[in-house]
Amino acid sequence: MLYLLTSCKGQFYEVEKYKSSSTIIKRGKIESVLFSKDAECFLCNLAISRFTPTLKEINQAEIILQKNIKAANYPIYNQGNGCPVIHKNLKKYKRQYFGYMDGNGNKLLYVNFLWAKYTLFDQMKGFSKADFKEWKDQLVFGLDGCSHFWQIHINLTKQKLENLQVNGSA
């Protein structure tokens, strides 16, 4: 493993090349996978072209996310009543990052969030970390699960969040 220091706020990342199309990155307790431009991403179909995000772009995206997620999350859909409130639990999600350019020349990250802090109560409801063993290999697409699973597009060019999607509850 290689330890890197990015220029944005001096964040330390633990970086491990996983496969030719994916790299595991860890910052504190947040574990993520950064997918290359060649990785399959059927939900990136709005892309004119794809790019491999850098650690600096991931850091930039996380700053945009932290500053804007509370406002983007209003009204709060499919959260509460046993499901996490997204903007209060950002550090409890694994992330999958995919980079793409839209038709207007904007550079965006499609980010898929997967709940990583399952309690015994969550497991009794049928949720389990073991359900997503392939999360480092491919985009995980889950149905239902409320705010344990959600997605957002982070526009790096415009410095804003777009198209927040929170899974429904069955």
Radius of gyration: 15 Å
Helical fraction:
10-25%
Query: What is the average per-residue confidence, as pLDDT, rounded to a whole number?
Result: 84
Number of structural units classed as domains: 1
**Helix count, DSSP H or I runs of 4 or more residues:** 2
Provide the β-strand percentage band. Answer: 25-35%
- Shape annotation: globular
Quick tags:
single chain, 170 residues, mainly beta, nine-stranded mixed sheet, 14% helix, 35% strand
Explain what the structure shows.
The chain has helices at 55-72, 120-124, and strands at residues 2-5, 12-19, 22-27, 30-35, 49-51, 93-101, 107-115, 149-155, 160-166. With 170 residues, it is mainly beta. The longest helix has 18 residues, at 55-72. A hairpin with a 6-residue loop joins β1 (2-5) and β2 (12-19). The chain is globular and about 40 Å long. The chain contains two helices and nine strands. It has one domain (2-166). Strands 1, 2, 3, 4, 5, 6, 7, 8 and 9 form a nine-stranded mixed beta sheet that branches.
